[in-house]
Amino acid sequence: MYQITAKGPRGPVETAWDALAWVDPSPAGAVDAKEDARGAWRLDAFCETMEEAEECVAIIEEAAPELTARIEEIVERDWVTLSLEGLPPVNAGPFVVVGSHALKASSPGKISVLIEAGPAFGTGHHGTTLGCLLALAEARRHRKPGRVLDLGTGSGVLAIAALKVGAEMAVGTDIDRDSVFVARDNARKNHVSRFFVHHVRGANNPAIRQAGPYDTVFANILMKPLIGLAGEIERLSAPGAVIILSGLLHHQAEPVRAAFEGHGMLFQKRIKRDGWSSLVFRKKD
């Protein structure tokens, strides 16, 4: 695997992030942008091959000539090293997301979600995952999670958290086969059942449709696929359903909000964490 990194002001970093997110197909398997220090931002992209990494560099430097991107090969043991170093617990309202190394020391009275560091996205340390968990915590005060759909489930952290607070069942999807195996394993480690994970792209799939309609929908992915999924998510959602969306830099929130409002979704709130936005909608009763 290869990591492409570019540092600079927020504007050029966000422009480069947009360019990588909108190209179809993107050479990057994952893209992240965050504030690295006061006034300085960092863009990270991850690819499987050197050819894809070089394509990412070309896209970044064409979109934002102010940036210089560098490529670094990541050896497989890096994930193990990260896990052994021990990520700190993450508190998100009533939830604490924690690895086994810190499980015993996690906050008493919290709902623990055991997630180890690994190749599947979603340890709770990212602003998008944190925003979704906070949105779930608030939504459950008003209604039960019911039937849950988690598009781009990654580690399964959001679906598992929903199951731990009373969801009837959850369907997770991911385009990455490794993430499907990781999510299933995490469900086993967290002792939750009725979590069905599928290796599929998008939401137009018989297994997804047959399990619906859904009372809670998570989609923590990217701006472009979120906009494309707006109509399908609306059709899969039950009346009064809560829809929680993330994977958005702050300036990307408005186009996604417009797309979902265009399909009749009622905007509820926006949660901002670490440079990222999570949007909460409700389907009309």
For the record, give the distance between the C-alpha atoms at the N and C termini, rounded to a whole number. 46 Å
What is the spatial order of strands in the main beta sheet? Answer: 10-9-8-11-12-14-13
- Spell the H/E element sequence: EHEEHEHEEEHEHEHEHEHEHEE
CATH architecture of the largest domain: 3-Layer(aba) Sandwich
Structural class: alpha/beta
Number of beta strands: 14
> How many domains in all?
2
What's the number of helices? Answer: 9
Major β-sheet profile: 7 strands, mixed
Radius of gyration over all CA atoms, rounded? 18 Å
**Can you identify the CATH class of the largest domain?**
Alpha Beta
State mean pLDDT (0 to 100 scale): 85
CATH superfamily of the largest domain: Vaccinia Virus protein VP39
Helix content: 25-40%
Shape: globular
CATH topology of the largest domain: Rossmann fold
Given as residue ranges, the uncertain stretches (5+ residues, pLDDT < 50) are: 77-86, 118-124
Kindly estimate the percentage of residues that lie in beta strands according to DSSP.
Answer: 25-35%
